[in-house]
Specification:
Strand order of the largest sheet: 3-2-1-7-20
Largest sheet: 5 strands, parallel
Shape: globular
Number of strands: 22
Distance between the termini: 17 Å
Number of helices: 18
């Protein structure tokens, strides 16, 4: 063992877990691919241009508090460290500066966060089509905004947030095309009391809507039959709304249909997962202390379930407290006392989640796209080809992969995994739980052979 605790991911959950572990006195190491702390939500928060920070708002700059505390904590942190394998004995293989090394601890917390749900539709592989989160990353990292008219397509709070941020940054927002079905509103009303009990969140949403309305941004709702038009690159988007055919010219399309847990590591570890019928995604099964079905392996933050940045902080703290108890650094009584504040904060954040999940549930056609739509971008496999595999006898994504190469690209099914599961389930007349998901294998991301050749028993970067 090289440490008491290894944490993967320096977003809100990972930073919070590391700070909590340090306070308890655990020998902890924190690994992250990025050059500095923050994860996706707080990306570049310690080095962002002050003007951009002001534009992104206090929800973003809150991350600086966590990052500054982490820097002062003395926790061993390695940035630019890409985890490419985690064994079931909790040995972590990491690449840093082109060389690989290994770490091992009796407790491991994966705080790898969420990823944007893929939005397969005709034309989504054209140049000029991005996820909304990618535009936000460019803004945070380099203060860059898309040039030309930008059309935002999809649904969810992030779509509205990015639209407001781009407006403030001087971008031309050609419009918002919401795809959330009308039935979602009725379903959301079943959870309205939880939303009312979190007025701060509702106020944020109303402010974003008011900002976009005030700016005169064209806004279309309940859009169906979407197609991104263009030959060499994006030229516009066609869709139907209120029974009318529409076409909006633009040079950039930003897609967003919510975020889902990043389960690559938990899938690699073969721990138990459940199909979440509310979030329409896989989530790993974790107990109240973040522990999975594999003893010592914990997951915190949005990697376990989509709950937001502030909730991720609380879950990171809870997971670290659970790890400390497992190592007998604290007793059961102290464990409960230390977790009280975090559990209260987490419960507060969770009250609005059922309302948001119902209101922004993605439309059926995103999950089960038309035959001609490409679902696997790496291998250019269409939804029709996946259905053909089902008709030929393939009962799950892994058989489909063998016969069609769908999911065999460098992303290892990150982009197409959910869509393939749902297309197969629909075609086979089964539930997603019965169809299953891709088996993830090492390396999690492509690494050069030279990095493998450098593998040794050395336990820290640069030694």
């Amino acid at each position: 063992m090289t440490h008491d605790l290894v944490i993967i991911g320096a977003g809100p959950a990972g930073m919070s877990a590391a700070l909590t572990a340090a306070l308890i006195g655990m020998k902890t190491v924190l690994l992250d691919e990025q050059p500095r702390a923050g994860g996706q939500i707080y990306r570049n928060v310690t080095a962002v241009d002050p003007k951009v920070a002001t534009l992104l708002g206090p929800d973003y700059t809150h991350g600086r508090t966590l990052a500054d505390r982490l820097q002062r904590s003395g926790v061993e942190v390695h940035y630019g460290a890409m985890v490419w394998d985690v064994a079931r004995d909790l040995t972590v293989s990491v690449q840093h500066d082109g060389k690989s090394f290994q770490l091992r601890a009796p407790q491991l917390i994966a705080a790898t966060g969420a990823m944007e749900r893929a939005s397969p539709m005709p034309g989504w592989t054209l140049p000029g089509v991005l996820n909304a989160g990618a535009a936000q990353i460019a803004l945070k990292s380099a203060g860059a905004v898309p040039s030309g008219p930008v059309l935002l397509v999809g649904g969810g709070p992030l779509l509205l947030l990015v639209a407001c941020q781009l407006l403030e940054a001087g971008a031309t927002v050609a419009g918002i095309v919401e795809t959330s079905p009308g039935d979602n509103r009725g379903a959301a009303m079943n959870h309205v009391m939880g939303a009312i009990s979190t007025p701060t969140y509702l106020a944020k949403g109303l402010r974003m809507i008011w900002r976009l309305r005030k700016a005169g941004v064209p806004w279309f709702t309940q859009a169906t039959q979407l197609r991104i038009d263009g030959r060499e690159r994006v030229e516009g988007v066609s869709f139907i709304t209120n029974g009318q055919q529409r076409h909006i010219a633009c040079s950039v399309v930003l897609l967003h249909h919510g975020v889902v847990p990043n389960t690559q590591i938990s899938r690699l570890m073969r721990v138990a997962h459940t199909w979440d019928r509310n979030q329409l995604a896989w989530r790993p099964n974790v107990d109240e202390w973040g522990e999975t079905s594999l003893a010592g392996f914990r997951i915190a933050g949005d990697g376990a379930s989509i709950t937001g940045a502030i909730a991720a902080e609380a879950s990171g703290e809870i997971a670290a407290i659970g790890a400390a108890h497992a190592l007998q650094r604290i007793n059961s009584s102290e464990r409960g006392q230390r977790a009280t504040r975090a559990r209260t904060a987490l419960a507060k954040q969770l009250r609005i989640r059922p309302f948001l999940e119902a209101l922004y549930r993605p439309p059926q056609w995103i999950n089960v796209p038309a035959d001609e739509t490409i679902v696997c971008r790496c291998e250019e496999v269409t939804a029709g080809r996946v259905r053909e595999m089902a008709r030929l006898g393939c009962q799950g994504p892994n058989q489909t992969k063998f016969f069609s190469r769908c999911g065999m690209g460098p992303c290892q099914g990150r982009m197409c995994g959910l869509a393939v599961t749902q297309v197969l389930a629909n075609e086979l007349g089964k539930l997603p739980d019965q169809v299953g998901a891709y088996h993830i294998r090492t390396p999690l991301k492509p690494i050069p052979l030279a990095s493998l050749a450098s593998m040794s028993s050395k336990t820290t970067c640069g030694t």
